[in-house]
Amino acid sequence: MAQTLSHTELLNCGAQDAWECCKHSDKVLPDLLPEYFASSEILEGNGGPGTVRVLHFGPAIPQAGAAKERLDKVDESTRTLVYTVVEGDPRYTNFTAEVHFEPKGESQTEATWTAKYDTVGEAGPPEHVKNISILIFKTFEKAIQAKKTTSHSETLDASPDAIWSAHKQENTLLPKALPHIFESITYIQGSGEPGSVRICKMGPAIPNGGEVMERTDMLDDATKKAGYTVLKGDPRFKHVSAVVQYLPGPTEGTTTATWAATFVPVEENGTLDNRFIVAVWKAFEAAAKA
Questions:
Q1: 221 — phi, psi (to 5°)?
Q2: Over the stretch 143-188, which tens digit does the pLDDT of each residue have?
Q3: Which residues are registered as beta bridge partners of 97?
Q4: CATH number of 148-289
Q5: Hey, which CATH number is domain 3-145, 3.30.70.3090, 3.30.530.20, 3.40.190.10, 3.40.50.2020?
Q6: For residue 230, which of 268, 173, 272 has the smallest C-alpha distance?
Q7: What contacts 290, CB < 8 A, 6 or more positions away?
Q8: pTM for this one?
């Protein structure tokens, strides 16, 4: 009969921020807890259900080696992630865990970890796994508290409808309009709807830019708002998420474009430049006017 072990931790941070850290834990944990997590790798998928990843443990988890996990559920609406340990601690079988983040006011979150498992032989409850989960929650909290935010607004000489239309065509528009920044933009999952994943091959204006993988988090026609998260590829940051919106501008036929980003830099004084979003907006403006 399956057994259950659970723990809830109150975090001094927002639930959405904690959820973003959780979704990118394979990238964040080796940076923030290298003594526990030496490295990670994605074997299949791009972070959604069905993704298979391997976590290689550090010296603080002696003789543990590595664990292979499959993501079974990644639910944005409830901020819930479920994973199954495919290969790991031989003392436990059928090990499935759920992680959930529930907001408590504006700046606190209840983070809950619940595991269901069968034991082998005389093995007791996996208290060590629960304790590592608590440590992970507190590490997320610390990273979020160190997170930086930036925003920028610009008035564009075209209507919000025209700018939004250009935005929705950015995968083909930007490599033509800004080839020095974007060599190509290609979807590897989906076609632009929320959950889609794309690869941006950066141009010569981005030194050592290489390829950046982004996930579409939001694309709302009613509010002309779009959101994205950088999954991997920018060595300057452990995490970047941003939202852009296009509203009526100060005069008829103009648009107020707003960009708001949150990020965790690798270096303490790292910053996120708004020059590239301005260049993108100017490309949208030119396309809209044409």
A1: -65, -35
A2: 888 777 788 999 999 999 999 999 999 999 999 999 999 999 999 9
A3: 83, 115
A4: 3.30.530.20
A5: 3.30.530.20
A6: 272
A7: none
A8: 0.65
